[in-house]
Amino acid sequence: MMDGQHSGAGTVGRELTVAGLTQGLLQPSTRFRWSQYRTLFQDAGLDTRDLHARFSAYPPQAGWQRPVWGLAALADARLRVARANREANLAFLQRHLLSTLHTAERALKIPYVFDVDDAIFLGTRGESADAIARGARHIVCGNAFLADHFQRFGPVTILPTAVDTDHFTVRSAPPVRPTLGWSGSSSGFTYLYAIEDALAQVMRALPQVQLHIVADRPPAFAKLPPERVHFTRWQPDIEVEVLKTFTVGLMPLEDSPWARGKCSFKMLTYMSCALPCVVSPVGMNREVLDLGACGLAAEGAQSWADALHALLSDEAMAWSLGQTGRRIVEQHFARRVVGAQLVELLRREV
């Protein structure tokens, strides 16, 4: 479905029409907190409008392009808000229409649900997120840390970023070569670099082990043998198959307010594919680990090295953790489970 198209037969006879004001068609938040529920919305009789940002909600890296982007993105945001006001009786607003700024949200005349899956209240313009939250009918937060902040501004519900367990499925056979894997945006490389010493130690001890990175650009490790570091450029049509080449999934984080705002989606996708994982026990990661033996927690270089070595050396433990992880996702984080909660919330807010 292209930008601006809608699901359902139209507003006639419909109890609820929801406009999805997102930051862009391919943004992870759009894909996994809005678009993947389209068929569930249809099945529930909800009429929806996909009003994706045409110019992205985030400024380009080149400074000279930013003024042009700002004018175009703001004009687009105003047009999308105007369409939402005309065609819907509720808006689902994902983060800011323009990153870190309170702009066209002010023109919304219909009630809106404000969806937050990162600690966007931090930073020099963090108060803009608070201002948007104050005007919301309801605030949906991806984890408890975010909910703790936003609950002062209005009613809050925690809805995790769900995984489509029919898409992120269990692999049919183990990888040919033991592989440590990480998938995500290059903005997260700083977390990977923080465990580089541990990765180097494991790769020295186990010469057959390789590292596979899936991202928008290659990483730049200083201490790892380059011939054993493999890079795949991320594309949505290969993201699941690439995960299935991993033996162990990695999710390192620093213990900071920004990291505590993360919604553990990387970890959950590993688990959905029945991969054991090693993660930093920060924020929601710790909460997921508390649900069952789905992975190992690691803090510090030696702890990371020990955990990785243990999983690479003990296939039975790795298999057991992976199976438990899959069950946890199916019970708590599956698209059908979270989607049903979202449908109920949207109906309640009109």
Describe this structure in words.
The protein has helices spanning 28-33, 38-43, 66-87, 127-134, 144-150, 189-194, 196-205, 239-243, 257-260, 265-272, 284-289, 301-313, 315-333, 335-348; strands at 6-7, 17-22, 47-52, 90-94, 112-116, 138-141, 156-158, 179-183, 210-215, 229-233, 248-251, 277-279, 295-297. By secondary structure, the protein is α/β, with parallel strands linked by helices. The protein has 2 domains: 6-162 and 334-348, Rossmann fold; 179-333, Rossmann fold, CATH 3.40.50.2000. Helix 11 (284-289) links the parallel strand 12 and strand 13 (295-297). It is globular, with a radius of gyration of 21 Å. 43% of the residues are buried.
Helices and strands, with pairings:
Blueprint: E1 6-7, E2 17-22, H1 28-33, H2 38-43, E3 47-52, H3 66-87, E4 90-94, E5 112-116, H4 127-134, E6 138-141, H5 144-150, E7 156-158, E8 179-183, H6 189-194, H7 196-205, E9 210-215, E10 229-233, H8 239-243, E11 248-251, H9 257-260, H10 265-272, E12 277-279, H11 284-289, E13 295-297, H12 301-313, H13 315-333, H14 335-348
Parallel strand pairs: 2-3, 2-4, 4-5, 5-6, 6-7, 8-9, 8-11, 9-10, 11-12, 12-13
Antiparallel strand pairs: 1-3
